[in-house]
């Protein structure tokens, strides 16, 4: 607790000193703050390896201040957890510690035991920041933890300006809101992973491995146990790259008209080594499963190349693609709003354009 | 069983918002406001549960300025039995809203609380999870299917998660937040709109509920996102491929 209080005091000083010459106030705050930042990241892992979104959260945590210490919390059970832990230890050079909670209580990502676990770990570690990625997992658990700690969390952070100042999109990304956390408890954030890209790790980081410690759960009390139970899940196994982190995303809208026609989008994605996305309309019409939905309420993507076929460009869809490097739109309707954000637009019938693209595009390298 | 549904009044989803020139927020004066779309879905689900005989009463709650009464009337016209309006002119963080809902739940004792998964203005996606935490109830977020078992007092919920669907069993009372695909909300018919005028809306204040107001996040500024540079229209597939190859270097 003392650490966070100190942190608040320092931040306040920084604010008071903002009239003073800039260089002085900044250098004071950085050197003092950097000692106090200690971040706990709620990590996600699957079949023995850590998810890329979690590594993005590490990248984000790294920009909270210099010399910050970063701990990854992994929970689950059995050998795949231990496997993921050893991978987590070397997933990023700035990870200093991997905490492992091994219990069948955490076999499935149920919010109730997980929130209690994060609180349990926090009581022993005195963290100034608690982070998770803005995935369905992070969004489910982190606010629950925050309420247990009586803290207001900050969702979907896209930029970190300092240890207590953040930018997040509101109104489906049509406005950016800069906020300052002024509370006394740990600062809790979910991180938009596309805004914190993971740079490939160089060879020398191989030697730097974080320590792995098992959390002693003998004092872990979980009164809400068995109030919720995992029944099952259906996941789409796909050979294609993950939508959230793909270099190329090819998206189809309602204009595809059928499941069969949507296969053209899939073919094009295969040819370009990309992932397939869809608009809400295409998902609602049943052309593709809902986890391919791109937009405010679906996945947020930021690929190098985003191609939209038969997508009108509703606000909620644009919110999910705005940060793509190059946007290509193909639509019959020359007035479709998607053309306002497209770098390259082609007015045409997608049933003619896609086959032509398939034929003429160079094979992927 | 009673069902409590939280509904929020927000800028209509079809409105193109404008950031205020002084960067303090988004223009909401003289802008069309409506019920948050996810809240409509939450209310619709509660009404369907009542119609299926699993619940006796659906209570709609809204927290905010006097105009929230319009939002509540919309909810009553859809079929909610009564409304509770917690009137305030301050805009609260989700944590405070969650505390208000918790104290209402302590009074009303609902078997289920429905909320939308997020409000389309602040895009927080927090309130439902926080209410569940404060009450110590289980949560089922991003629901796309809800099946109740009255005998066992259990809800089976399909959740939309990254990579597919997940199914949970939660003991009641529980908090459920709704995703877009849960249902298609009904339109209120004219007779029902008329009927809604005579349904009760209870006014309350934050003081009545003895909620401690947490304001640990300060908004420093609200700005417009950077504009994308305007693009070009190409006239053929060949030109498009040429541009992608030689100008953008992405294929």
UniProtKB/TrEMBL annotation, chain A:
Its cofactor is FAD. GO terms for molecular function: electron transfer activity; flavin adenine dinucleotide binding. The keyword Nuclease does not apply. It is found in: Mitochondrion matrix. InterPro entries: DHS-like_NAD/FAD-binding_dom, ETF_a/b_N, ETF_a/FixB, ETF_alpha_N, ETF_asu_C, ETF_asu_C_CS, Rossmann-like_a/b/a_fold. Its main location: mitochondrion. Binds 1 FAD per dimer. It comes from the Eukaryota. PROSITE patterns: ETF_ALPHA. Residues 39-224 form the Electron transfer flavoprotein alpha/beta-subunit N-terminal domain. One of its GO terms (biological process) is fatty acid beta-oxidation using acyl-CoA dehydrogenase. One of its GO terms (cellular component) is mitochondrial matrix. The keyword Protein biosynthesis does not apply. Keywords: Electron transport, FAD, Flavoprotein, Mitochondrion, Transit peptide, Transport. FAD binds at residues 254, 279-280, 293-297, 310-317, 331. Heterodimer of an alpha and a beta subunit. The electron transfer flavoprotein serves as a specific electron acceptor for several dehydrogenases, including five acyl-CoA dehydrogenases, glutaryl-CoA and sarcosine dehydrogenase. It transfers the electrons to the main mitochondrial respiratory chain via ETF-ubiquinone oxidoreductase (ETF dehydrogenase). Belongs to the ETF alpha-subunit/FixB family. This is Electron transfer flavoprotein subunit alpha. It comes from Arabidopsis lyrata subsp. lyrata (Lyre-leaved rock-cress).
TrEMBL record, chain B:
Belongs to the ETF beta-subunit/FixA family. Keywords: Electron transport, Mitochondrion, Transport. It is found in: Mitochondrion matrix. GO terms for biological process: amino acid catabolic process; fatty acid beta-oxidation using acyl-CoA dehydrogenase. InterPro entries: ET-Flavoprotein_bsu_CS, ETF_a/b_N, ETF_b, ETF_beta_N, Rossmann-like_a/b/a_fold. One of its GO terms (molecular function) is electron transfer activity. It comes from Arabidopsis lyrata subsp. lyrata (Lyre-leaved rock-cress). The keyword Coiled coil does not apply. Residues 23-213 form the Electron transfer flavoprotein alpha/beta-subunit N-terminal domain. Heterodimer of an alpha and a beta subunit. The electron transfer flavoprotein serves as a specific electron acceptor for several dehydrogenases, including five acyl-CoA dehydrogenases, glutaryl-CoA and sarcosine dehydrogenase. It transfers the electrons to the main mitochondrial respiratory chain via ETF-ubiquinone oxidoreductase (ETF dehydrogenase). One of its GO terms (cellular component) is mitochondrial matrix. This is Electron transfer flavoprotein subunit beta.
């Amino acid at each position: 607790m003392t650490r966070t209080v100190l942190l608040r005091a320092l931040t306040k000083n920084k604010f008071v000193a903002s009239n003073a010459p800039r260089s002085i106030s900044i250098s004071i705050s950085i050197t003092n703050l950097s000692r106090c930042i200690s971040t706990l990241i709620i990590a996600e892992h699957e079949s023995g390896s850590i998810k890329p979104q979690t590594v993005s959260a590490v990248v984000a945590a790294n920009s909270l201040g210099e010399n910050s210490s970063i701990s990854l919390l992994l929970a689950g059970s059995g050998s795949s957890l231990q496997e993921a832990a050893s991978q987590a230890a070397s997933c990023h050079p700035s990870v200093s510690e991997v905490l492992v909670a091994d219990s069948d209580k955490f076999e499935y990502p149920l919010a109730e035991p997980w929130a209690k676990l994060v609180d349990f770990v926090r009581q022993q570690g005195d963290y100034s920041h608690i982070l998770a990625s803005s995935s369905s997992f992070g969004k489910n658990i982190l606010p629950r933890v925050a309420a247990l700690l009586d803290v207001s969390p900050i969702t979907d952070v896209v930029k970190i300006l300092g240890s207590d100042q953040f930018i997040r999109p509101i109104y489906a990304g049509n406005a950016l809101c800069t906020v300052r956390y002024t509370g006394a408890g740990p600062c809790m954030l979910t991180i938009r992973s596309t805004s914190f890209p993971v740079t490939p790790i160089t060879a020398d980081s191989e030697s730097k491995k974080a320590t792995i410690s098992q959390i002693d759960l003998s004092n872990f009390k979980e009164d809400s146990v068995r109030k919720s139970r995992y029944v099952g899940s259906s996941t789409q196994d796909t050979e294609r790259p993950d939508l959230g982190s793909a270099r190329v995303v090819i998206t189809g809208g309602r204009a595809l008209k059928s499941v069969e026609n949507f296969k053209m989008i899939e073919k094009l994605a295969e040819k370009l080594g990309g992932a397939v996305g869809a608009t809400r309309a295409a998902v609602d019409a049943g052309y593709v499963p809902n986890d391919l939905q791109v937009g405010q309420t679906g996945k947020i993507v930021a690929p190098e190349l985003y191609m939209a076929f038969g997508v009108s460009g509703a606000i909620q869809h644009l919110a999910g693609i705005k940060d793509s490097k190059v946007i290509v739109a193909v639509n019959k309707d020359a007035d479709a709003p998607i053309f306002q954000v497209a770098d390259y637009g082609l007015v045409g019938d997608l049933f003619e354009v896609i086959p032509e693209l398939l034929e003429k595009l160079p094979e992927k390298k | 069983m009673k069902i409590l549904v939280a509904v929020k009044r927000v800028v209509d989803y079809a409105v193109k918002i404008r950031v205020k020139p002084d960067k303090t927020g988004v223009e909401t004066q003289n802008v069309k406001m409506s019920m948050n779309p996810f809240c409509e879905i939450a209310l619709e689900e509660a009404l369907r549960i009542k119609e299926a005989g699993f619940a006796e009463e659906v209570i709609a709650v809204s927290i905010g300025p006097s105009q929230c009464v319009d939002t509540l009337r919309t909810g009553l016209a859809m079929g909610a039995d009564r409304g509770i309006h917690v009137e305030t002119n301050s805009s609260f963080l989700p944590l405070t809203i969650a505390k208000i809902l918790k104290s209402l739940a302590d009074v009303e004792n609902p078997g289920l609380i429905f909320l939308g998964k997020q409000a389309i203005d602040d895009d927080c996606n927090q309130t439902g999870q926080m209410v569940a935490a404060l009450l110590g109830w289980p949560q089922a977020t991003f629901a796309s299917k809800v099946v109740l078992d009255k005998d066992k007092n259990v809800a089976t919920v399909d959740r939309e998660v990254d990579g597919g669907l997940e199914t949970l069993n939660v003991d009641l009372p529980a908090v459920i937040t709704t995703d877009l695909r849960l249902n298609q909300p009904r339109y209120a018919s004219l007779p029902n709109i008329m009927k809604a005028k005579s349904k009760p809306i209870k006014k309350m204040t934050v003081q009545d509920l003895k909620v401690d107001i947490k304001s640990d996040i300060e908004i420093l500024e609200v700005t417009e996102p950077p504009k994308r540079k305007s693009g070009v229209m190409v006239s053929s597939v060949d030109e498009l491929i040429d541009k992608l190859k030689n100008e953008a270097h992405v294929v």
